[in-house]
Amino acid sequence: MTTPYPAPNFSLPDTDGKAKTLADYAGKWLVLYFYPKDDTPGCTVEACSLRDARDDIAALGAEIIGISKDDASSHEKFKQKHSLNFTLLTDHDGKTINDYGAWGKKMFGKEGILRKTFIINPDGQVVKVYGRVTPVGHGEQVVEDVKALQKA
Fold it and tell me: Which residues are catalytic?
């Protein structure tokens, strides 16, 4: 696991334009994941894996939030098309993406959003970081890790 450190704060709009902040989730476990683009193959597999694991994650008292630079209408279409049952936030300027270290070099030397997931405990501490997420089975992996972290 990761040595706990304070999660960077954020204030980003959801698909309804309502600002969500880290403080909104105080006292809860939070699965915060960053992904490159709505409705692309890897991002869809990852989102659907988290969607399928959401009931188990919610049963552990945790919420899921996905963050990319896509706008609200793109997020809404992505949610509808794949029946996503969690919040998607828009980080237009990339500040939160940078604050979490989810921007960097990708394949072929291009820069962009890295596929990273953070588990944040009820005290607002990052307690687990997935550096290069494998989209397949990510939801199940998160469920197991949240269980383990809650026991620790």
Answer: 43
